[in-house]
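Example record for the data management plan.
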Amino acid sequence: MIIISVVIFFMTKGPDASLTFIISAFSILSILGIIFAILSKQWFSITIGVLGNGIILVFAGFLLLAKGIGG
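Corresponding structural encoding:
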């Protein structure tokens, strides 16, 4: 899910990027990644999955905050 989020970021960047699409894609993929990591029974996968997807979820939250401030 982390790799897909990075690919979506590079595909949608630019002056005419839809910030709503980017925020929703990052949020959905991060939540799915955290769920799949927790369903995994390996501690390494849980740790890396939750940390990696958590960072992307925080990034999406900051984008949502910036969109709210910027209008």
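Summary line stored alongside the record: The CA atoms of residues 12 and 23 lie 11 Å apart.
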